[in-house]
Amino acid sequence: xxxxxxxxxxxxxxxxxxxxxxxxxxxxxxxxxxxxxxxxxxxxxxxxxxxxxxxxxxxxxxxxxxxxxxxxxxxxxxxxxxxxxxxxxxxxxxxxxxxxxxxxxxxxxxxxxxxxxxxxxxxxxxxxxxxxxxxxxxxxxxxxxxxxxxxxxxxxxxxxxxxxxxxxxxxxxxxxxxxxxxxxxxxxxxxxxxxxxxxxxxxxxxxxxxxxxxxxxxxxxxxxxxxxxxxxxxxxxxxxxxxxxxxxxxxxxxxxxxxxxxxxxxxxxxxxxxxxxxxxxxxxxxxxxxxxxxxxxxxxxxxxxxxxxxxxxxxxxxxxxxxxxxxxxxxxxxxxxxxxxxxxxxxxxxxxxxxxxxxxxxxxxxxxxxxxxxxxxxxxxxxxxxxxxxxxxxxxxxxxxxxxxxxxxxxxxxxxxxxxxxxxxxxxxxxxxxxxxxxxxxxxxxxxxxxxxxxxxxxxxxxxxxxxxxxxxxxxxxxxxxxxxxxxxxxxxxxxxxxxxxxxxxxxxxxxxxxxxxxxxxxxxxxxxxxxxxxxxxxxxxxxxxxxxxxxxxxxxxxxxxxxxxxxxxxxxxxxxxxxxxxxxxxxxxxxxxxxxxxxxxxxxxxxxxxxxxxxxxxxxxxxxxxxxxxxxxxxxxxxxxxxxxxxxxxxxxxxxxxxxxxxxxxxxxxxxxxxxxxxxxxxxxxxxxxxxx
Length: 694
Known about the structure:
The chain is of the alpha+beta class. The chain has twelve helices and 37 strands. The protein has a five-stranded mixed beta sheet with strand order 1-31-32-33-34, with no helix packed on it. Strands 2-37-36-35 form a four-stranded antiparallel beta sheet, with no helix packed on it. Helix 8 (607-620) packs across helix 12 (671-692). The radius of gyration is 24 Å and the shape is globular. It starts with a helix and ends with a helix.
């Protein structure tokens, strides 16, 4: 009997996972295979393809000459309009990826046939204390198991063959507003996972769990806690001297929500840490200080979590310049000497090259235009030279909190010595409130003046318009080899290949391929929805494929929908797979509205109530429903029906839709405040309708 090809591939993959099946490639994905992943061009075994996280594929069937024949092979529509950020893992023809709410899919890579789905049943009510959408960046694979970090703080080991959970452990205090959005990493049989939540007031840390049992092996905190309770290490005791006031009461911040990389040669784990809480140093640490280890790159011993060195990217961060952007390892010839380096294109606008053996600063160079918070870098100390007035508000900060480069993966082509990344220029007015700041972990905890939030759109209008680029950066020569100006300011992760190609998606839904030698655009495909995630490339039965997740979300998805309109394309998410000669057609599920909103009800109000409603809306609603009530991935409130308006009290104050991810605000709002928000939303609908008639 002849078995179907998809079943043959599945059985072969299962054999490889278990290390024993009749297939030439059958071997476990263990430490040795992960260390040799660079020579395994057929698969994509870990988040950045290899331990170096260079995201460079040596495959060359799809190249600068054949790219015009690249076509869609299959697509899969997903039941979500939220952000999709995952990097798929591919092993011997089986693709594993994650969607919003931490849902996992296993699929036959060449055909898209679903093999299994695992839903960890994340508590949707936690959406209120998630900063940046209900996203997940992917999985780790090790010895037949997949490892998943869930939005509600669990680490789950899943049998890769069946999709059944093997073990589960809670990595956070459920009473605190922690979340996990990042992909786990594996080092020496340990699963490494960080967390998010600085905007709500948490104390960051990275944990290492035994891959077989799920037992906690070590935990390294990123900022000091309450001195009265003692310090977990000498490093944290030293760090506490760089803080002032009762900083621990608000949590401190500094979570390692992305950017964890392992170097098996040095046996070191590197990770970047997030911003502080509040955003403004004078509020969280009255009297100043560097506030270690916020906005830093840390190197710890893989087996123990002991700190070996640190480099603080943005001392005393005042601008939400976390250092959680991708870390990339490489060996570079600098000044006639081969240096083992870790590189980061930081949110703060500087490209850093750091000696990864000891943390010594090598270089820090602006890669984006218009930096206002610093005038340069001290070449001896490696400290930024802070601009006058940058640490106090109001201040026109550039880059803005979205960053000159954010979590979106970058790629490195070792044959050209170039790093490829999406860069953006943008600015925003930041303004801390005068006087005492009261921390509130149940809400965004930034320290902004609520009156300022209500004027956000007007203040942004004063700033230079944001601009996006794809940059080929030479880290040795400290300059851009080429730049491509993009039609939108926001773009997704990057893949580089030996076919002299760089591929990247954008917020307007376009996936483009560029020649890596000079940036010439060679190919483009309309994916139907904005793209955040990076493509991956792999080979099955001698054929090269490209796969990526499509779905625009996150804070930029919500906010930009209100500010940039058609430059951001929200919609249902999907998985797309391409190969040479692909002829499939994409038929996206319709999403959104084609006609201007028509207010469903009339609500009499006053100018004062409308003004209050605008401030309340920006405070409680805009993070999900968009600035100016112009929504992206979630429902546009301007189109609410009369039935929805009638149910507002039960939805917003009573939590009737918590299970669907609509937060409950009965502890913050009352009927009168909700009416003010409702009046503001109706006024925005009416304004849009009137604008359409002009």
